[in-house]
Amino acid sequence: MPPFPFQEDHEMIREAVKGWLSDWEDGGKTLHRVAKEGQGFDRAAWEGFARDQGMAGISIPEQYGGADMGLLGRTVIMEETGYTLFSAPFFSTCVLAADMIEAFASEDDKTDLLGKIASGDIIISVLDGREKLSLKDSKLNGTLSPATDAAHADLILVAAKDENNDVVLTGYSPNTAGLSVTPYASLDPTRSQAKVSFENVALSDGQAIGKANDVAFSQILQIAHGSLAAECVGGGQRCLDMTLDYTNQRVQFGRQIGSFQSVKHKCADMFIALESARSASYFAASPDLDNDHSAKFEAALIAKNYASEAFFKIAGDAIQMHGGIGFTWEYPLHYFFKRARGNRALFTSSEDGFQMLADEIGLKSHASAISGE
Amino acid sequence: MSIREELNQWMLDNLTGEFEKIRWRGGPGDEDSSPELRRAWEQKFGEAGWIGLQWPKEYGGRDLSLMDFVEFNEEYARHGGPGRAGHIGETLMAPTILAYGTEAQKERFLPGIKNGSELWCQGYSEPNAGSDLSNIKTKARLEGNHWVIDGQKIWTSLAHESDWIFVIARAEEGTKGRDGLVFLLVELDQPGIDIRPIHQISGTAEFNEVYFTEAKAEASNIIGEVGEGWKIAMALLGFERGASTLGQQMMFQNELNLIIKTANENGRADDPSLRRRIAEAHAGLKVMRFNALRMLNGTQDGSTSKEGYISKIFWATWHRDLGELAMDVIGADAEIIEDELSPLQKLFLFSRADTIYAGTNQIQRNIIAERALGMPKEPRGNTNG
């Protein structure tokens, strides 16, 4: 019986993805290679995963060429990509961009772009420039950083606010005049980061994807961010598995260190954090919420922030439980620790996320009183 | 009509008049409030057929599905249904009798639970058998038609309001630990039993000490065989992690709502650090609900699913933290007692017990490490004695 709330077909996907990613990972060797290459991106693997395995279209609706497996489908994939730190733009392209396009694009653009996403033929990086970009006289100016997966994107989907405070979504080729993409080394070497500058970039030089009300845009954005919870759960599970293996093997004072209560209690705490993060993740992906947009938004806020905090705690504890070896570059635990820190800070930080949740549950602040609530 | 609608109507019609006084009352930390009224409520509830819904039809139940029972519990809590005087009987004793009792025991004991006329309490802990529960010293010996019981139980919730107690006792001289125990059903109203309330941190007294001096139970009032006491006692605890946890969460939600209301009224809703803690408490409660749904959906064969092991420590720690948060939201004013402890003051004090009873957080971590994670067992000392 598949674990609640999944169905049989989700579990089949999970088994397939798990096996494929385990081959990719090659016992940790691949992460070292990706880190050495310095791009945080394994293009050949991405093409194999997205095109040949057909995983890019997991939650794209059937009419656009996807498998239509919804939030639970992508949850399965992101748990497994988190477990192996698969260095590829699944989240940027197949979650974030796909959700934006599905919510705000015209039918023609959906057919075109969602179709390309589903077939694995496009990489899209989504940049939220609502705060930092200026949009005047139909021209964009400003710099966005860190821009995840922009360094190798075929299309940069950027959000900016116009004079009416509406959100304008535009898609640009990286070769557009005035637009420059500068790759950065990332603290997390398994993730791709860049700086993207806009210098008098004309709206008319890009593909107009759509306009959105600011609140509606935020909600879609946060619902997409909620799927990162699954990556955190996968990564957290890996850290716990490695810790249990290690504490079971390592002998000090004539005993396996896993038999000491101080070590057991720490592992128990990691398990509690992991399983509750898993609940947060599954809750946000639960089909029960499908028809209730604001419940889905709140659940996504909870999932992303709760799970990224849990992952960071688990990864930090895992290093501690490994002792000196956890501190080495050779041992791959540090990649998970770095991914965990990134997930807390990127795509809305935990601090901002919890403050948004506080608004959502009716805590009145001066800030919301001023904005006219 | 769904079970939720059915109960909704009944609660609207019946949680009225004198019973208004016990709406939202009688939960943990508040179990000493209006005991007589709550006993009357239990009977009214039972007579309306609301007790034992999950039991098989042949024993008067409705064979209610798990998810329906979850809905039922949530609906009850949503109305502020009073803490149930009969909850130990319904959620612990009855499932144990159904699983391990004889036909005669089912006939004797289930109706009293079902109609709310017989209330139960739990005789497990002893002064030297807390976390190390199998270190039981209370003795039971069979004399003619009766078990004769000597010893002491402690931390017995609601003993002074109850009619019956189930007791683990040592029946075989010279045995240690889990061997030689019996699980007995003992009537409280008898000369051999003395109940003394324990005055707690909260100033109230829900817990008791129960002294047995040649107390008697009929020979037939044993569940299982001599030597099976431990097995039965543990099976009973398994029933504790049930659907009632979701009803309990509605009560937690009510407490959290009160904290949010307080913060909005006194302006502390503006403090970013308190805002974050309140938001985290809200997230924790949603997580707790989904933990429970996962656990309930994963345990239909009766065993504990791996994630089920986090249930107790998660809610207990969350609730204790909520008590501290409540005090911080109220601020210095929380030092003042007007007439009696306010609900949030009670929450703060009583929730210190949550991480101690029914397996301390430390014991829970041992259980998680050894059973859910399969880590090596702690070497055991030889301290029984």
Question: What's this, in brief?
Answer:
The complex is a heterodimer of chains A (373) and B (385). Chain A is of the alpha+beta class and 373 residues long.
Structure description:
The complex is a heterodimer of chains A (373) and B (385). In chain A, 53% of the residues lie in helices and 14% in strands. Chain A has helices at 8-25, 29-37, 43-52, 70-84, 90-104, 107-119, 214-225, 228-249, 261-285, 293-322, 333-345, 350-360, 366-370; strands at 124-128, 134-136, 139-144, 155-161, 167-172, 179-184, 193-202, 207-212, 251-252, 255-256. In chain A, helix 5 packs antiparallel against helix 7. In chain A, strands 1-4-5-8 form a four-stranded mixed β-sheet. In chain A, strand 6 (179-184) and strand 7 form a beta hairpin. Chain A has three domains: 8-119, Acyl-CoA dehydrogenase/oxidase, N-terminal domain (Butyryl-Coa Dehydrogenase, subunit A, domain 1, Orthogonal Bundle); 124-212, Butyryl-CoA Dehydrogenase, subunit A, domain 2 (Beta Barrel); 226-368, Butyryl-CoA Dehydrogenase, subunit A, domain 3 (Up-down Bundle). The longest helix of chain A has 30 residues, at 293-322. By secondary structure, chain B is of the alpha+beta class. Chain B is 43% helix and 13% strand. Chain B has eleven helices and eight strands. In chain B, helix 7 (244-266) runs antiparallel to helix 8 (272-298) and helix 8 packs antiparallel against helix 9 (311-330). The N and C termini of chain B lie far apart (58 Å). Chain A binds chain B through residues 3-5, 244, 247-248, 255-256, 258-259, 261, 263-265, 267-269, 271-272, 275-276, 278-280, 282-283, 286, 299, 302, 305-306, 351, 354-355, 357-358, 361-366, and chain B through 260, 263-264, 269-270, 272, 275-276, 278-280, 282-284, 286-291, 293-294, 297-298, 306-307, 310, 313-314, 362, 364-366, 368-370, 372-379.
